[in-house]
Amino acid sequence: MTISIGDKIPSATFKEKTVDGPVEVTTDALFSGKRVVIFGVPGAFTPTCSLNHLPGYLENRDAILARGVDDIAVVAVNDIHVMGAWATASGGMDKIHFLSDWDAAFTKALGLDIDLSAGTLGVRSKRYSMLVDDGVVKTVNIEESPGQATVSSAATMLEQI
Q: What EC number(s) has UniProt assigned to this enzyme (predicted)?
């Protein structure tokens, strides 16, 4: 079943590479008592993710936070080292969380996993964005195609906050 508005975010533990080294980030720590924008991508360094989806959130970070959002996070089914390299290469380190869902446990619990084996990517995340308030989904935007970043874009999220 796919996550919907009004659902509680499932429990999970991510890995995040920070300037101080690797840390574990639980969904409880990320979402409890906070308004958080989270978006999922099929993969770090992939064209749509790196050229369109992520840049929109980095460029609109301050505008999103100014609307009462406490934090922004991107999730991908990539290992912590790839996510850390993407955070550094994109200039996003310490601006938003780059969360590794290395085994797709969170992505599968959301019902947003997609098999992209035909493109040699294996199991990945569908492209989506959500506004989560104290662990409860307030908005959810899921792309029909992993190559698009329109309904899950930062511009769309800004309209919804």
A: 1.11.1.27
